[in-house]
Design brief:
By secondary structure, this protein is α+β, with helices and mostly antiparallel strands. It has two domains: 3-126, CBS-domain; 132-210, Alpha-Beta Plaits (2-Layer Sandwich). It is built from seven helices and nine strands; from the N terminus they run E-H-E-E-H-H-E-E-H-E-H-E-E-H-E-H. The protein has helices spanning 20-30, 50-63, 89-99, 118-129, 148-158, 190-198, 206-210, and strands spanning 14-15, 34-38, 44-49, 103-108, 111-117, 136-143, 163-170, 177-184, 202-204. Strands 7-8-6-9 form a four-stranded antiparallel beta sheet. It is elongated and about 70 Å long. The protein starts with 13 loop residues before the first strand and ends with a helix. Residues 7-64, 76-131 form the CBS domain. InterPro entries: ACT-like_dom_sf, ACT_dom, CBS_dom, CBS_dom_sf, Diverse_CBS-Domain. This is CBS domain-containing protein.
Length: 211
């Protein structure tokens, strides 16, 4: 999935010459936690978060309210990670994880055209897993060999059961084996479970995992 499919665009930005007070009001009015700071050409110069505002307010109010008229450049984070609308979502997910950041502005031809937040990433995860669609799921242990997914999905084809999503990940306890989490458009997984077992696969369901 590409970033352009999940980003908020156009995104709300603020000019680097606007005041801290204006930034605070804008974030409250728009109910946002991340505010890219741009110049007149929409080039990203920094970013302000609700945390930046909360950290700045006590010292500002402790001295004089005049400092609320200071430019947002005084409190913005200048070291900003950006991405391109044609980047893959899974690639920027690594940046979110490794850098512990809450948002990434989306830049195309040097201009800020959107933003991706942690909430967008969570919504994307829910969409990719198909968990928001009525159905059921099974986990299948398979050998890590070419063509194995064909054998697994053939069982669903034979039983006329549509697959909503497939996630494949390593089995940490058994090298050379993969675990396949399959979400299907059926509230009754029993026929599929029985068929997979008959085909020689080891199947686990959420109920089994609790035991």
């Amino acid at each position: 999935m590409l970033v352009e499919r999940i980003m908020t665009s156009p995104c709300i930005t603020i000019n680097e010459e606007r005041t801290i007070d204006e930034a605070i009001k804008l974030m409250r009015e728009e109910d946002i936690r991340h505010l890219p700071v741009v110049d007149e050409l929409l080039r990203v110069k920094g970013i302000i978060t609700d945390r930046d505002v909360n950290l700045a307010l006590p010292s500002i109010l402790g001295e004089t309210e005049v400092k609320l008229d200071a430019p947002v450049a005084d409190i913005m984070n200048r070291d900003v990670m950006t991405c391109h609308p044609l980047d893959f979502v899974e690639d920027i997910a690594i940046d979110f994880h490794e850098l512990s950041i809450g948002s990434i502005p989306v830049v195309k031809k040097g201009r800020c055209i959107g933003i991706v937040t942690q909430k967008d990433m969570l919504n994307t995860f829910l969409e990719l897993t198909g968990v928001m669609t009525p159905g059921s799921a099974v986990e299948v242990a398979v050998p890590d060999v070419p063509g194995i997914m064909h054998e697994v999905t053939k069982v669903f084809y034979v039983h006329h059961t549509s697959i909503e999503s497939i996630l494949v990940y390593r089995d940490k306890e058994n090298p050379g084996q993969k675990l396949v989490l399959i979400r299907m458009q059926s509230m009754n997984p029993r026929p599929i479970i029985d068929a997979l077992n008959e085909a020689g696969f080891t199947v686990r369901t959420p109920l089994d995992m609790r035991l």
